[in-house]
Amino acid sequence: GAMLMAIRLRGMDAGETLSLTRAMATSGRALAWPPAWHGLVVDKHSTGGVGDKVSLALAPALAACGCKVPMISGRGLGHTGGTLDKLEAIPGFRVSLSPEEMCSTLEQVGCCIVGQSEELAPADRVLYGLRDVTATVDSVPLITGRGLRHKKAAEQLSALVLDVKFGGAALYPTQDSARQLARSLVEVGAQLGIRTVAVLSRMDQPLGRAVGNSLEVLEALECLDGGGPQDLRQLVTVLGGVLLWQCGKAAGAAQGRELLGRALDDGSARSTFEAMLGAQGVPPDTAHRLCSGTPVQRRQLLGTAKVCEELPA
Q1: Helix, strand or coil for residue 252?
Q2: Are 197 and 160 in contact (CB under 8 A)?
Q3: pLDDT in tens, 291-301
Q4: Glycosyl transferase family domain location, by residue (predicted)?
Q5: pTM, entire model
Q6: Looking at the chain, which terminus has fewer C-beta neighbours within 10 angstroms, N or C?
Q7: Architecture in CATH for domain 2-293
Q8: What is the C-alpha to C-alpha distance for residues 183 and 278, in angstroms, rounded to an integer?
């Protein structure tokens, strides 16, 4: 805790941030992919915001476009929700996979979304939780290290896009502070040999219309149906378009956005999401009904919060 607060108050220079990132990345087992995947392994990292369910739609959409997406995600941090918490609202979903299980899932499905473990970035798992209780969530060096050490652990990563959010519903309130973080992330990414692009996205209000684990899963499914809130779809296609361009699947970011949008509209991204659910422990019947059912059926599968209170309009 004292070290984290010292880093937040005193900061770190570029060399120190790079050294911290490398040390954290090598605290566990490094991932290695088959040579045939070279140039196809991509990932996205977000600084987090209220209602941010982008990963749930982006990972399967990228996989449907031919990429390999090994996402190592986190839980809630500060006032922002965690991707793992949202996925665990789905009955049976496993966020803990061994490296061998990850490789098998990537081979069969094309994407997986997992958490830190004793094998994968164990030191990060400890620091991630400590940052949440020591008021050091917004430290630029710690965010930089956390955002990139997973990507360094995932060897042969071809491209990384960073969603750096700013505004009232984000960790960073101003565009200038977000730009400072984006520069730090891109610089360290380049030094690690990762092709890195940062996208600044305004977040003065929650992304989409839903906030809460089950509700955000439902909204991500709407996006995978080719619908859902326009701001969510736009961010998913912008970030995915950059990655498809960076890994050579598209001639430019604009074509990449078009290809990713097509995967959302034709159902291939939703089918990939269903396959990912099955590969990560969700019973096949549940996965199918969740992805193919009506909105009412989907809500019944995910259940409701333990504490509910009606608010008269």
Answers
A1: coil
A2: yes
A3: 999 999 999 99
A4: 41-269
A5: 0.86
A6: C
A7: 3-Layer(aba) Sandwich (3.40)
A8: 38
